Amino acid sequence: MKLTSAQREEFDREGYLFFPSLFSPTEIKSLIDEVPVLYAQSRPENVREKGSESVRTNFAAHMYNEQFARLARHPRMVEPIVDLFGENVYMHQFKINGKMAFDGDVWQWHQDYGTWKNDDQMPDARAMNVAIFLDEVNEFNGPLMFIPGSHKLGVLDAGHDTATTSYPLWTINDDVIRQLVGRGGIVAPKGPAGSMILFHGCLVHASTSNLSPWNRVSVYLSLCAVSNHIRRFKRPGYIAHRDFAPIQCLPDDCLVKPYEVAVPWKNGTPAAELQPLTVAA
Ligand code: SIN
Ligand code: MN
Q1: Tens digit of pLDDT for each residue in 15-37?
Q2: Does domain 5-274 bear CATH number 3.60.15.10?
Q3: What is the pTM of this model?
Q4: Residue 133: nearest ligand to its CA?
Q5: From the alpha carbon of 97, which atom of ligand 1 is closest?
Q6: Among all ligands shown, which has an atom nearest to the Cα of 114?
Q7: What atom of ligand 1 comes closest to residue 143's alpha carbon?
Q8: Backbone phi, then psi, for 228, in 5-degree steps?
């Protein structure tokens, strides 16, 4: 899947592209059916909401679940990014965010590239975020919100918020958000399960809590241009991957046929991936 010149212009201007219903209900069912088993596991990759057993985010499922390993190699997701960067990409981060009914907590206003730069020493914002909806996203279940055009401002000042939720985040203060929203407004792409969003690493985004009775499970992937790989391994390898091999795509029907994929962490996460390393590759 290649982007049209109109899509490239839209991405440059707005900082994101929305593809409603890009994956079929059958493809999405094959993924969402795997989620309860993943969330039930007690492994460090499952981060639970504050004061609850609900999973906030599950890291690196593509390393221990075959169907998510196939998704990580899906050409409908990988090819537009390779096209935009003009270079092969590797998987920097892979998450399945729960935002579960009644329990899903907020994601404060932030940019992802700020963390990749400060924590991981990623040289440039040549990494793309992808969100794939495994449930419908509507106005009630905590849709992802963007400030269009905010990616043009580079890395904004942020403070490390370790208190608001169960997962520490570099967040942008309210005065800056007020100014940014004054110029760009807020949008929240909504749509059926199977929809996909591509968004720039510097696009300012957030989501509210989920008070609705509907889960909002979405996969969030960050794909980085291979030459732009991280230089520091301060975060565990299951959060910020250290394998910079280019993603080799599977055929387009890889979610409906059982193509063979490696799942090297199936029997547990290697000890080296659980901790910081002082020397990066
Ligand atoms: C994120 O910014 O990484 C997640 C946001 C969300 O799940 O709403
Ligand atoms: Mn984010």
Answers
A1: 999 999 999 999 999 999 999 99
A2: no
A3: 0.97
A4: 1
A5: 7
A6: 2
A7: 8
A8: -100, 20
